[in-house]
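quick one, two chains, predict together pls
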Amino acid sequence: MDVPVLTSNEEELKEISRATGVGLELQEMQQVKEYFQRKKRNPTDVELQALGQAWSEHCSYKTSMPILKEVLLTIEASQNMVVVEEDAGVVTFDEDHAYVIAFESHNHPSAIEPYGGAATGIGGILRDVVCMGAQPVALIDPLFFGPLDYADSLPRGVKHPKFLFSGVVAGIRDYGNRVGIPTVAGQVCFHPGYVSNCIVNVGCIGIVKKEDIIHSRVGAPGDYFVLAGGRTGRDGIHGVTFASAELHENSEHESRSAVQVGDPILKEPLIHACLEANGKKLLSGMKDLGGGGLSCAVGEMAYAAGYGAEVTLDTVPLKETGMESWEIWVSESQERMMLSVPVENVDEVKSIFDGWDVPCTVIGRVIPEKVLRITHKGKKILEMELDFLTKSPRYRRPYTVRTIHPVVPELEPPTNYNEVLLELLSSPNICSREWVIRQYDHEVRGSTVIKPLNGKIGYYTHGDAAIMRPLRSSYQGLAITADVNPRWVELDPYWGAAATVDEVCRNLVSVGAVPHSLADCLNFGNPEKPERLGDFFQVAEGLHLVASAMNISFVSGNVSFYNESHSGAIPPTPTILGVGIVRDLRCAVTADLKASGNSLYQVGTAQEEMGGSEYYQVRHVTGNQIPQTSPGVLRRRTSALLAAIEKGCVASCHDISHGGLGVCLSEMALGGNHGVSVTVDDRNLETALFSESPSRWVVEVVRGKEDEFEHVLGEDAHRIGAVTDGFLTINPVINLPLDQVRAAWEDTLWRMMG
Amino acid sequence: MSPIKVCILRIEGTNCEQETFDAFLELGAHPEMIHLKELTPETLLEYQCLMIPGGFSSGDYVRAGAIFAARMKSRLFSALKKYVEHGYPVGGICNGFQVLVELGFLPRLSDHPEACLATNDSARFECRPTLLKLENHCAFTQKMDIGSIYEIPSAHAEGKFVSPYIEELMENGQAIFRYVNPQGEYAGYPWNPNGSQYSIAGVTNEQGNVFGMMPHPERAFHIYQNQEWTRHSSTAGGHGRLVFESVIEYARRL
């Protein structure tokens, strides 16, 4: 069916874009019109839809990429192998192996249908790792919701945070556990800014032999396109264009079909079959079908190799009859992979997939000229140059950087520090995440060496990072963590972003890992609004500040704009996934206190910079002076602390973050079921106990190794006390039995979620 | 002495086969991962041990293990029966335990299941370290000590062992592992993560050669898989390793 673009005026072009749901802007529609004027014909509906997919913000990064290229993606690190260009980043692990990282958002689908949206988020991120030829080894899922006790009236069409939270966790649980990849790290954050638009980020790490790395591009003309996995249906139509617009009160009705249906029990054998075929060197390229479906996968695979493609939709296995050509072409139905296969290997590939009962079908061939040609039922329904289709427009949209006027609240010191500490421990952003963590299988595959919950059996605390042992033949480990403090980024995007990278590095160092690579999932509001894009720009600069000082790059990531609805935008949320290398995992360190009599040290000191802190939250005041990371200091302390760990001085270690020193000590005490006796500088107790200044840790030093530790850490080591068998005691102001501390920290989520 | 051949059976959704395979391999056995489609009554007899690993076979969308069991029944039931009667060891871990119960092989051979692994009392999936006390011996425990406590983690949503014949099973000594607390006492949740009758974590058949357990010994093979390993200086193997050592020894003596 042709779309009458040639004869349309500006208003009519806008109407065509709206009515067809392709989501193209007016100037883009005009580019389409000019292109087809040269061809002397109108585009078909399939062609217009294909352009809508390829040029969507979600697929093309047309707004974000110019900024990211200029600001963020300039760091080079010798360990990097594949950075940003493909579905996942690839980084050297050892001489023969590499690890693969992918990190994405699944925000809009999860806001509409939390269970299915989150589940298919897991499905998609697994495919991104598999399509590099890697075996997935770990899943990561940072989540952001409105407050669970939100009692105001909800904006129309918006679901309650509690419903979203439980649905998302169930979706991740049921997909991740079934597919058999452990979920080992993540974050749960509650903030009123996520009421109308929850954020669901999903990450995956995989391991691959370097010789098995395969790319998302076809091999040579004549190769077959083989579509493997699930059937194509009407689920997941217009997912990317849905993700590239604001949510509104009718999103539920209009965009339900944009949410796909996941099937982990098809994914599991699909992964085996893809990896088996790749391991036997039968494939010339592999790419997952994610956003944009066949349309993006075929076009991008051919274009990346400098060739074109001829495809027929007649052989695509369908879930239902009567699907329109364009629906087949853009459907984002799950559990599908595109393989490019040299002709002589096709039969062997088919027999591998047959062995796993996974359908696979030849749907086209690679051609030498850079053209995409599609036929369906004997008709040519699409013919476009890939240079036009795949090379989307790039925008330098206007942005405004905000000016921040310092606000420091007037605040009397608390009368009862015990109460403040207990309130902090029970606050939703600090309290135990056991309710979530134990629903995920974090040990399947048997390679989780440091688990998300640390501590003595029967007791537990949050670990800073999980450690995986990806190869049974080696004791080298991969440490994994993810973090962001949106409250900071909201107050000050530049320093908030810098502090995020600081925290990620801190978490990795806590377990004894050298920070090695990063991935970013940048969740923002509508970039067509200059102040939103200004925040984005500053976040990119802040991330770069610390990452470049640590000499690690962002090797993979995703930008999710339009996390905004009629009731406002989310707080800017640059979630950062960090991977570290543990040279010998037998020397790994956990956060739980080990033995009475060991000394406790603080690495670094607290500063009066409490804007966005949990302490201000519980005292009901606001201030915007958030911590300003000093990359040089972080770097110095990081290498000293890693050296101390390597020398065997460190019995336990935990980074100081939400809630400050008081919360940090409490968490360490709970995991080991030990008390502490600590004295800090009492000239400004609130700061000493509750400031969230970055680049700090609490370290339990093995008895007798104090001098060695102090020698390695130098001026950064401050002895604050010792591990005991009794209470949690800090100065004269805090004195609490562990049971009371435990009850405050453990109960909140169980009470709210049941 | 030729290595013991172990068949690690799988279908779609089985997901603990690799670590089960690795456990046998590291102990010098000769494990093979075999899709149910490939196993015939004849090829079954090439193996000295049959293992059904954990996972969510076929999604567990019916009762856990029911679809895997039904497919085994239709293809191999009489061959399997003979295999068991000959004394070969058959083990099921987690989903594999559920399969053996659905198949009517545990707690004893019957046409219909005589027990059930019901939904956990908590009504949710639980992934947590568990402590098991060895109560009786079977083909999978010869290298362990009765009365000792072993740390082997659990991860399941349907692990509550219930049977109308529970008293009989207890009397027969068919309860192999029971959940306990660190003091060795039979305790409630969370030490018993699912609410099993008599805190049962693993059972055997009357002959002692078919064995199923909900916790995952393959995830407690190396000491570095233990929950607490950073708290101790021991570098000895994990407790789950003993389960594999035991069955290899048993199969060798057949």
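The domain at 214-393 of chain A is CATH 3.90.650.10 (Phosphoribosyl-aminoimidazole Synthetase; Chain A, domain 2).
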